[in-house]
Amino acid sequence: MLPILAITMGDPAGIGPEIVARALSHLETYQKCRPIVTGDAEMMRKAVALLGLRLKVNAVERVEDARFEYGVIDVFHLPCIDTDTFEYGKVAAQCGHAAFIAIKKAIDLAMEGEVDGTVTAPLNKEALNLAGHHFDGHTEMYATFTHTKKYAMLLADERLRVIHVSTHVPLRKACDLVKKERIIEVTELIDDACRQFGISQPRIGIAGLNPHSSDNGLFGDEEALEITPAVEELKRRGFDVVGPVPPDTLFAKAKCGQFDGCVAMYHDQGHIPFKVVGFNWNPETGKMDSVKGVNITLGLPIIRVSVDHGTAFDVAGKGVASEDAMMVSIDYATKMAINRKNRK
What we know:
The chain is α/β, with parallel strands linked by helices. The protein has helices at about 15-25, 25-30, 40-50, 95-110, 125-130, 140-145, 170-175, 180-195, 220-235, 245-255, 265-280, 325-344; strands spanning about 5-10, 35-40, 55-60, 70-75, 115-120, 150-155, 160-165, 205, 240-245, 260-265, 280, 290, 295-300, 305. It is globular and about 65 Å long.
């Protein structure tokens, strides 16, 4: 049986419903998984009509009532939007609440074993907080509702897979967070993730913090004090790791296939090369033609994969948003679900 994936609608004022509808208009989606959307069924009908898709929306109250057939979008119906006041591209509390309950339902279904994994469409943090749900974003919500203490963000796009020692902290603090135990922790997480993607013997490159990985102490001592000891310990534990690799060459090597995963020391060190690879801008329009990267939360008891872009309020409701990242997210979630089942 194909894995069941709960796909959240995202903030309905953004491009979430559109990219979900487009992704579910592809036959290949139904050939790899059984998708069910969590959210307001009326918003999904609105997206289908906007895009001119020949799809039906089947509103259900239980997963077992879903049809899981191409041409039909099953929606775990969570009515909460007043269509008379709804507007595309506008921050609104009702839309933040809609995104929240869609995520909470997906998490609950996964924790209860009714679905094999979850995929999330983008939300708007301002709308989320206006609705009274005070979270920084998806990752914190998943950690809270799954009672997870140790977790990390993984960015993935074809050959480039990047995990971070730290993410949303000031750069000065990020340097202080480069510690041996944290490096070991996130390396173990990315190694396990690569195995879930079907890579039997992952080779992991670990970045340095300083230029040229400090050039033997000329530009800092974090490599000698924390990163190198972490690499040596990981090797003793049987991991195939290399490092510290100078940050200005690590990601280029990974893109060419020398590494299956990369450990970045802080947010921008990993995000910048990743977005250069995955974000495709149109030089004539000044807008993105497609975004292919995905964001995976590691360390959770359930699978969570997300598109690595925002709600794009500026183009919401215009029918031009690309489903590329959503398609890749579904693909990754499917692989992870299948490999988790095979491990049991």
